[in-house]
Amino acid sequence: MPKVPYLTYILFTIGVLIYIFTYFLIKGDIFNLYSNNNYPYEQYSKFWEEMTSEQRLLLTPTYYQFYINLTNKIDEIYNNSKNDLINIEKLYLNSDIKTENTKYTKLPYVLVSLIPKNKAIQKKLLICSHFDGHNLTSGGTAYDDAIHVVSMLGTIDALTSQKVELNTQIDFLFDGGEEFGLFGA
């Protein structure tokens, strides 16, 4: 058995600590961002609990259930919108992906666009996250990219639940096939 250099253990430990620190720092920053802008912490926490409670391994029943939960949450945000300064457009899409060995059909994607009313759109901003996961994360769970999904939902909700004026169109793309690498993303 080859001997692993002591420095490798140190670097691995430092990497894990940085990952853990960054995770909680980002989560804390997002909580603060919403709470400092009159966006209720409880609402963000609710998104977090709903969107990270299940594994969503690619093409499993929990993956498709997550997609249904995601579209239901977007419909709820859309129906409760109080911001008449923007238009909300939502598209529920799917795509076929053919890899070298397999063809996957109807992989879901979601696009939500917040478009300023009565303004000429000169620029667009795309914010993207994937919602599919894998079983390689700790404990076999698949929270892969959950914080980004929750952040995007929270941002859409925050911008539509109060009078906020936008100067650019913001497109939120929830990608359902990132685990296919270049085929899915």
Keywords:
4 helices
Question: Brief overview, please?
Answer:
The chain has 185 residues and is α+β, with helices and mostly antiparallel strands.
Write the layout of secondary structure elements.
Layout: H1 6-36, H2 41-51, H3 61-79, E1 86-98, E2 103-116, E3 124-130, H4 146-160, E4 169-175
Parallel strand pairs: 3-4
Antiparallel strand pairs: 1-2, 2-4
Helix pairs in contact: 2-4, 3-4
Mean pLDDT: 76
* SS content category: alpha+beta
| Residue windows where pLDDT falls under 50 for at least 5 positions | 138-142
Task: State the end-to-end distance.
Answer: 39 Å
Q: What kind of sheet is the major sheet?
A: 4 strands, mixed
Helix content bin: 40-55%
Would you report the number of β strands?
A: 4
Strand order of the largest sheet: 1-2-4-3
Annotation field: number of helices: 4
What is the alpha-carbon Rg in Å? Answer: 19 Å
Q: Give the CA-based shape.
A: globular
How big a fraction of the residues is strand? 15-25%
Order of helices and strands: HHHEEEHE
